[in-house]
Amino acid sequence: MISQLRGKLIAKSPGEVVVEVNGVGYGLQVPLSTFYDLPDVGEEVRLLVHTQLKDESLCLFGFLTQREKELFRLMIGVSGIGPRLALTVLSGISAEELERALLEGDVLSLSSIPGIGRKTAERMVVELRDRVAETRGRERMPYGGEEMMRDALSALMNLGYNRSVAERALRQAKMEKGASSLEELLRESLRILAKTT
User: Fold this and answer.
1) Distance between CA 154 and CA 167 in Å, rounded?
2) Which helix (H) or strand (E) holds 188?
3) Residue 138: is its pLDDT beyond 60?
4) Which of 44, 49, 95, 97 reaches 20 to 30 Å from 21, CA-CA?
5) Is residue 64 within 8 Å of 37, Cβ to Cβ?
6) Which residues are registered as beta bridge partners of 141?
7) Max alpha carbon distance in the chain (Å)?
8) Does the model's pTM come out above 0.85?
């Protein structure tokens, strides 16, 4: 499994690059968001790689950021979205805007991307909203009030609580007790949830 390549960029065109590592040229498919930020041909580049083995062929997909790679991997887990369509999505919308659309359920923005119809956009929101919220909550730094709420929400959802129910309990816990640490916030939220279930 190839997960990263570092070497000389020997060719690039929209959607595809070739990186030479120790005399071997690796062809990778990339979204336009990665293509736009690549260095000049002949310079060193480091790409994060998703490797796919299908029908005895090996396909490599390259990304400059971990966030793009994670979103790509989340998308190809959605029924009806393959690697090529996932690359199209990342080419048509920034990672930040994609996250926002998924978190806010913005089906209109998603369905404006070529190849994404309304039903696929709705499926993306349903299947990816919570997973994007979880990963976003984990990587927010430095740790503060908003980050603490995101981490607490992620923890409650991992315990099986519905998002809206968990959010309500967290708001109530914060308002009533003014919890100043993640542990306090979770303890108080779980106490509130135990009363309501």
Assistant:
1) 10
2) helix 182-196
3) no
4) 95
5) yes
6) none
7) 65
8) no
- Choose the CATH number for 4-63 among 2.40.30.10, 2.40.50.140, 2.40.37.10, 1.10.357.10: 2.40.50.140
For residues 174 and 186, give the distance between their C-alpha atoms in angstroms, rounded to a whole number. Answer: 10
CA distance 85 to 74: 12
Residue 17's DSSP bridge partners are: 12, 28
- Residue for token pair 């779980």: 190
Q: Which two tokens stand for residue 30?
A: 């990339």
**Would you say domain 66-139 falls under CATH 1.10.460.10?**
no
Quote the CA–CA distance of 11 and 77 in Å, as a whole number: 30
The per-residue pLDDT for range 19-59, each reduced to its tens digit, is 999 999 999 999 999 999 999 999 999 999 999 987 778 89
The number of beta carbons lying within 10 Å of the beta carbon of residue 86 is: 22
Q: In which element (H, E) is residue 86 found?
A: helix 83-92
CB within 8 Å of 117: residues ≥ 6 apart: 111
> E strands within the chain?
4-13, 16-21, 24-29, 44-54, 57-63
